[in-house]
Design goal:
- The chain has about 425 residues and is an alpha/beta fold.
- The chain has a single domain, classed as Alkaline Phosphatase, subunit A (3-Layer(aba) Sandwich).
- InterPro entries: DUF1501 (IPR010869), TAT_signal (IPR006311).
- Pfam families: DUF1501 (PF07394).
């Protein structure tokens, strides 16, 4: 019986050690300016009305009591974007990207499905199919099948403890556990243990297993070597002039950037962050949500900076399963809502815009009398990203997104 790399991954035996073909590395490095896509999923439903706040909409202040963000130009106020919307002040590290047209937002965006269940809404966001029982493979896995060669196991990576649904499917996607732990040696990094495993797999007589193990171990060693050789030292931290240290998301973002710079075959990457379910004491310019957004903004700014010239050919999509209620609840937070905001960042983006049809926050415009309405289907945004940035044709788009979203056609690049 032969065992595939996928079997090894599912068994947790090799984890992030999946193999990469040397010939594919050589061909990828010879290719000119590969296009990259990074998807960041905010699990728990981030409050898009705080990320990009409609400060010219009177109902925003009428309904939000203690959690509305102050207007631009006031203490703790929003960062003005376009005279209508303002960026949360905790996201100030991203303002230079907005000013350069490298950051944009699609507001009142989301799933047309009415669910307020995190589980169901995340399923739809990850599969891009609204009939839950119809399929379980993720759209990012289907995308990998279109843009990554079959024998290139390092063309698509997930920075997760376990492979999420969005990356699950027929195509191999490698799990890379970044953060501080990635540089710590494991048992397999001890020469005697590695030699024992090598001998065991060789003795098994199953060449595919032996090859997968040997090549997978080489992949892990390459990743650790790439990251260790560029890890910031104390002097570099001082030179950052008070910028937060690369911990949490900023650390993962920095490590991902270094991997992408050193490995042009790495075309697709997925990260996920939690703790966005702000039912209690959400806060405004300061507080729980502001603290989380600050870490997110620092990480995204770090990713853009550390990618260097590679950022010119990279598009970053930040999305969450649904938004939150327009009105503040009795606990100083917000509950599960509907419409939200998708973030787009990239060196080739024609941003500096808040896209989408803004429905307003008047009572008559709210979804079910309480939520921001969805006027742009999230799938149509993803379709445009894949068509314009990754240059997928109609046949490929249909394979990645079997359910087309309502038409949304904006020039992003």
């Amino acid at each position: 019986m032969s065992i595939s790399r996928r079997d090894l991954l599912g068994a947790g035996l090799l984890g992030s050690l999946l193999a990469v073909s040397p010939s594919m590395i050589a061909r990828a490095r010879a290719a000119e300016r590969p296009r990259r896509l990074v998807v960041v999923m905010l699990r728990g439903a981030v409050d898009g009305l705080s990320v990009v706040a409609p400060y010219q909409d009177a109902a925003y202040y009428q309904r939000r009591g203690t959690i509305a963000l102050p207007r631009p130009g006031t203490d703790g106020g929003l960062i003005d974007l376009d005279g209508r919307f303002g960026l949360h002040p905790a996201l100030a590290p991203l303002q230079p990207l907005w000013a350069r047209g490298r950051l944009g937002f699609v507001h009142a965006c989301g799933s047309p499905d009415p669910t307020r269940s995190h589980f169901d809404a995340q399923h739809y966001l990850e599969t891009a199919v609204l009939a839950k029982a119809s399929r379980d493979d993720g759209w990012l896995n289907r995308l990998a099948a279109q843009v990554v060669a079959d024998d290139d196991a390092f063309g698509a990576v997930s920075l997760s403890a376990t492979l999420p649904r969005i990356c699950s499917g027929e195509h191999d996607v490698t799990n890379v556990p970044l953060g501080r732990g990635v540089l710590k040696p494991s048992a397999l990094d001890r020469a005697e243990v590695a030699a024992s495993f090598s001998a065991m797999y060789q003795a098994s007589g199953d060449a595919p297993i032996a090859d997968a193990y040997r090549e997978g171990l080489a992949t892990r060693q390459r990743i650790r070597r790439d990251l260790a050789s560029t890890a910031p030292d104390d002097e570099t931290r001082v030179a950052d002039n008070g910028a937060p240290p690369p911990i949490g998301f900023a650390l993962d973002a920095s490590q991902l950037a270094r991997l992408m710079v050193r490995n042009p075959e790495l075309q697709l990457a997925f990260l996920q962050l939690g703790s966005w379910d702000t039912h209690l004491k959400q806060g405004a310019s300061r507080g729980a949500l502001a603290d989380r957004l600050r870490g997110l903004g620092d990480g995204l700014a770090t990713l853009a900076r550390d990618l260097g010239p590679v950022f010119d050919d990279t598009l970053i999509v930040v999305m969450s399963e649904f938004g939150r209620t327009v009105a503040e609840n009795g606990a100083g937070g917000t509950d599960h809502g509907h419409g939200n905001v998708i973030w787009l960042l990239g060196g080739g983006l024609k941003g500096g815009k808040v896209w989408g049809q803004w429905p307003g926050l008047d009572s008559s415009a709210l979804y079910e009398g309480r939520d921001l309405a969805v006027t742009t289907d999230f799938r149509s945004v993803l379709q445009q990203v894949c068509a314009q940035h990754l240059r997928l044709d109609d046949r490929q788009l249909a394979a990645v997104f079997p359910q087309a979203g309502a038409d949304w056609n904006q020039r992003l690049l």
